[in-house]
Automatic annotation (TrEMBL):
<dbReference type="GO" id="GO:0009252">
    <property type="term" value="P:peptidoglycan biosynthetic process"/>
</dbReference>
<dbReference type="Pfam" id="PF02873">
    <property type="entry name" value="MurB_C"/>
</dbReference>
<dbReference type="GO" id="GO:0071949">
    <property type="term" value="F:FAD binding"/>
</dbReference>
<dbReference type="GO" id="GO:0008762">
    <property type="term" value="F:UDP-N-acetylmuramate dehydrogenase activity"/>
</dbReference>
<dbReference type="GO" id="GO:0005829">
    <property type="term" value="C:cytosol"/>
</dbReference>
<dbReference type="InterPro" id="IPR016167">
    <property type="entry name" value="FAD-bd_PCMH_sub1"/>
</dbReference>
<keyword id="KW-0963">Cytoplasm</keyword>
<comment type="similarity">
    <text>Belongs to the MurB family.</text>
</comment>
<keyword id="KW-0573">Peptidoglycan synthesis</keyword>
<keyword id="KW-0274">FAD</keyword>
<dbReference type="GO" id="GO:0051301">
    <property type="term" value="P:cell division"/>
</dbReference>
<dbReference type="InterPro" id="IPR036635">
    <property type="entry name" value="MurB_C_sf"/>
</dbReference>
<keyword id="KW-0132">Cell division</keyword>
<dbReference type="GO" id="GO:0008360">
    <property type="term" value="P:regulation of cell shape"/>
</dbReference>
<keyword id="KW-0521">NADP</keyword>
<keyword id="KW-0285">Flavoprotein</keyword>
<keyword id="KW-0961">Cell wall biogenesis/degradation</keyword>
Amino acid sequence: MKLEQNVSLKAFNTFGLEAKAAQFIAFTTVNELLAALKMMESDQELMILGGGSNILLTKDFDGIVLKNELKGIELINEDRNHVWIKAMAGENWHQFVLHCIENDWAGVENLSLIPGTIGAAPMQNIGAYGVEIKDVFDSLEAVEITSGKYQEFTAEECEFGYRESVFKTSLKGQYIITSVVFKLDKTPKFNTTYGAIQTTLDEMKVKELSIKAISDAVIKIRQSKLPDPAEIGNSGSFFKNPTIDNIDYEGLKAEFPSIPGYKLLEQKVKIPAAWLIEQAGWKGKTFGEIGVHKNHPLVLVNYGNGKGEDIKSLAFEIRASVAAKFGIEIIPEVNII
């Protein structure tokens, strides 16, 4: 473990934005993490960095950055129908999905190619194509920052919601996730009804459905829509899809007949934020070194030398225009720092 000073974070965020950390430590074991926490001053600001795929850096960071590089994947239990897989928080999420597919562990194939790490997955309750982390989650272990104590969290204690958990609400900034246990199926329950999965499988001429085929289809869909951060700086979907009351949705549908909506429980409807942003005229717009991606209006991009503060300003302009046109507030999914 090495304490470094004045470290560039450009290589550690998928937007590719230049910002410096006053102090930086990469930890590879829990003991190194505990040692790093003991080194901190009581009033020092802390940033935990995983894959850097869900942050927008708008300035230099005056505190200490702890880069999570905890690695390891192991089968810890199994019965006739399920396996319990423990993955360390610094593992790459997509590589974990591929590992599960290779071992015929089903349940995460619809979550292929989502950027980020294992530790960020439950924090965000990541989801795609009809599956969320809460559907395959068993438990996680985390270290309390102030005390250094280990604690296990069950699914109920994580309080999963749409792209959120207790670690983004009441316990925000209080814990560092070190490992996650997933409960996966030995016999797959194929989920092909969401989005263009079935259409893509048909185009791929898949004769025998498998978790690998679903993963391949999801990868193909995502690659056709979303830019590769290695080529164009971005953090994937920048905004959450808003949820409104059914009565408000019916009112909007009278004014905007083509507005899509997905009915949820408790008389709620989820509206695709991408549709709202496109209808507000932002899709494909460029502003110097930044802009809104031409294929997916939910994705804000850095074309090379953009500034985080400019992307933040663009995001808030988009929010304001959507609110003015539809009366709907869209909330960033990305953490703005």
